[in-house]
């Protein structure tokens, strides 16, 4: 029942293995990468309590010793302070250039540990063992690593590809429903950006997938990773096409900064809301019929997901302030915002031809609904 997606980057090719039981069999997959039989694992306290013993047993079965560091869970861990802590600990463990660091956790741990590996001794290999749906379908693949800065999300980082990704779908059942659905926001993104048939499949199979249908989960993770791998192989460092993977993220990152990277809004929830706003903006600009954003929203609602700004509790800044936060987006060129818009479901494209006033109108209307 194991699926494999190969990310074929010259000199940095790697496999993404997808299926149940991969943590318990991790040793067999990691062993070929090792020059000595030990690894340094970094995780968070929640994931560590659930999966560290299984990983230790899985490595031990292949004679691999492990040392582990557990960090606090949550987006606030993607910080300078925790980066320093990781690097300091890895140096204390005398991790050498030919060793392998393992990131066991969700997107926060994968991004942070990947960045620590990228700068440790100018680059050490790392293995991603993503434990959230979001990390399995998105952040563990493609080599974007980094931390957040006071000025915005993911503003400090490096491209550093993993040497292997083990996406153990058997453990997705340990996720809180809220975290599972947040990850599903990224799954929907793939259908919206480039595969209308996949989006239609999600409309039909999303509810079963959320309830725990293992076959549907594997199929969704596989298709998402396949789409991500295709785009990353075309454009590893986001000079062009890779920006498509940022659908919904310009809005999302501004909202995450506005809500202080807190529990008020999980990253995947922001992506879902951001995708709905990107489709709304596309319809306002006459790029697609109004039925398209309505269909996007209908699916997110049917899945019980956050869909609109009115689903975010507490205060939000005004439209102008949100637009200012978007100005920190990494896609900005010569001070001009670039958006991922769509001519329809599955037909996204990158453009900087977006009038500021139309974006403000969309934001103002979305904010007005919160009062309504
Ligand atoms: O891998 C990519 O490329 C993506 O844009 C995937 C995003 O879903 C992901 O959240 C990424 O970390 C955001 O990248 P950023 O460059 O906008 O920080």
From TrEMBL:
<comment type="function">
    <text>Catalyzes the conversion of 3-deoxy-D-arabino-heptulosonate 7-phosphate (DAHP) to dehydroquinate (DHQ).</text>
</comment>
<keyword id="KW-0520">NAD</keyword>
<feature type="binding site">
    <location>
        <begin position="131"/>
        <end position="132"/>
    </location>
    <ligand>
        <name>NAD(+)</name>
    </ligand>
</feature>
<keyword id="KW-0862">Zinc</keyword>
<keyword id="KW-0028">Amino-acid biosynthesis</keyword>
<protein>
    <recommendedName>
        <fullName>3-dehydroquinate synthase</fullName>
        <ecNumber>4.2.3.4</ecNumber>
    </recommendedName>
</protein>
<keyword id="KW-0170">Cobalt</keyword>
<keyword id="KW-0057">Aromatic amino acid biosynthesis</keyword>
<comment type="similarity">
    <text>Belongs to the sugar phosphate cyclases superfamily. Dehydroquinate synthase family.</text>
</comment>
<feature type="binding site">
    <location>
        <position position="144"/>
    </location>
    <ligand>
        <name>NAD(+)</name>
    </ligand>
</feature>
<feature type="domain" description="3-dehydroquinate synthase N-terminal">
    <location>
        <begin position="70"/>
        <end position="180"/>
    </location>
</feature>
<dbReference type="InterPro" id="IPR016037">
    <property type="entry name" value="DHQ_synth_AroB"/>
</dbReference>
<dbReference type="InterPro" id="IPR050071">
    <property type="entry name" value="Dehydroquinate_synthase"/>
</dbReference>
<feature type="binding site">
    <location>
        <begin position="107"/>
        <end position="111"/>
    </location>
    <ligand>
        <name>NAD(+)</name>
    </ligand>
</feature>
<feature type="domain" description="3-dehydroquinate synthase C-terminal">
    <location>
        <begin position="183"/>
        <end position="332"/>
    </location>
</feature>
<dbReference type="InterPro" id="IPR030960">
    <property type="entry name" value="DHQS/DOIS_N"/>
</dbReference>
<dbReference type="GO" id="GO:0003856">
    <property type="term" value="F:3-dehydroquinate synthase activity"/>
</dbReference>
<comment type="pathway">
    <text>Metabolic intermediate biosynthesis; chorismate biosynthesis; chorismate from D-erythrose 4-phosphate and phosphoenolpyruvate: step 2/7.</text>
</comment>
<dbReference type="Pfam" id="PF24621">
    <property type="entry name" value="DHQS_C"/>
</dbReference>
<keyword id="KW-0963">Cytoplasm</keyword>
<dbReference type="Pfam" id="PF01761">
    <property type="entry name" value="DHQ_synthase"/>
</dbReference>
<feature type="binding site">
    <location>
        <position position="186"/>
    </location>
    <ligand>
        <name>Zn(2+)</name>
    </ligand>
</feature>
<keyword id="KW-0456">Lyase</keyword>
<keyword id="KW-0547">Nucleotide-binding</keyword>
<feature type="binding site">
    <location>
        <position position="153"/>
    </location>
    <ligand>
        <name>NAD(+)</name>
    </ligand>
</feature>
<dbReference type="InterPro" id="IPR056179">
    <property type="entry name" value="DHQS_C"/>
</dbReference>
<keyword id="KW-0479">Metal-binding</keyword>
<feature type="binding site">
    <location>
        <position position="249"/>
    </location>
    <ligand>
        <name>Zn(2+)</name>
    </ligand>
</feature>
<feature type="binding site">
    <location>
        <position position="267"/>
    </location>
    <ligand>
        <name>Zn(2+)</name>
    </ligand>
</feature>
<dbReference type="InterPro" id="IPR030963">
    <property type="entry name" value="DHQ_synth_fam"/>
</dbReference>
């Amino acid at each position: 029942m194991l699926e494999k997606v190969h990310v074929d980057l010259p000199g940095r090719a790697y496999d993404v293995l997808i299926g149940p039981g991969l943590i318990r069999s991790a040793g067999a997959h990691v062993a070929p990468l090792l020059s000595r039989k030990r690894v340094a694992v970094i995780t968070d306290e929640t994931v560590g309590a659930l999966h560290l013993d299984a990983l230790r047993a899985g490595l031990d079965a292949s004679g691999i010793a492990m040392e582990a560091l557990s960090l606090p869970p949550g987006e606030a861990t993607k910080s300078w302070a925790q980066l320093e802590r990781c690097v300091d600990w890895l140096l204390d463990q005398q991790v050498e250039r030919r060793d392998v660091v393992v990131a066991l956790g969700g997107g926060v741990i994968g991004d942070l540990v990947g960045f620590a590996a990228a700068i440790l001794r100018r680059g050490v290999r790392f293995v991603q063992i993503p434990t959230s749906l979001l990390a399995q379908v998105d952040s563990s693949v493609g080599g974007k690593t980094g931390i957040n800065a006071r000025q915005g999300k993911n503003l400090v980082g490096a491209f550093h590809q993993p040497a292997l990704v083990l996406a153990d779908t058997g453990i997705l059942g340990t996720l809180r429903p809220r975290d599972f659905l947040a990850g599903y926001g990224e799954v929907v993104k793939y259908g919206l950006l480039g595969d209308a048939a996949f989006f239609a499949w999600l409309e039909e199979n999303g509810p079963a997938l959320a309830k725990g249908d293992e076959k549907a989960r594997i199929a969704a993770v596989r298709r998402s990773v396949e789409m991500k791998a295709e785009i990353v192989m075309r454009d590893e460092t986001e000079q062009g096409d890779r920006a498509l993977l940022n659908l919904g993220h310009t809005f999302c990152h501004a909202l995450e900064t506005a809500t202080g990277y807190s529990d008020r809004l999980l990253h995947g929830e922001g992506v879902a809301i951001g995708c709905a706003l990107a489709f709304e903006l596309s319809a306002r600009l006459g790029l697609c019929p109004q039925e398209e954003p309505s269909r996007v929203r209908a699916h997110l609602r049917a899945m019980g997901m956050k869909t609109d700004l009115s689903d975010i509790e507490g205060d939000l800044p005004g439209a102008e302030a949100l637009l200012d936060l978007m100005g920190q987006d990494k896609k900005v060129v010569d001070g001009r915002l670039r958006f991922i818009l769509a001519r329809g479901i599955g037909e996204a494209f990158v453009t900087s031809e977006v009038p500021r006033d139309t974006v403000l109108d969309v934001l103002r209307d979305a904010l007005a609904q919160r009062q309504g």
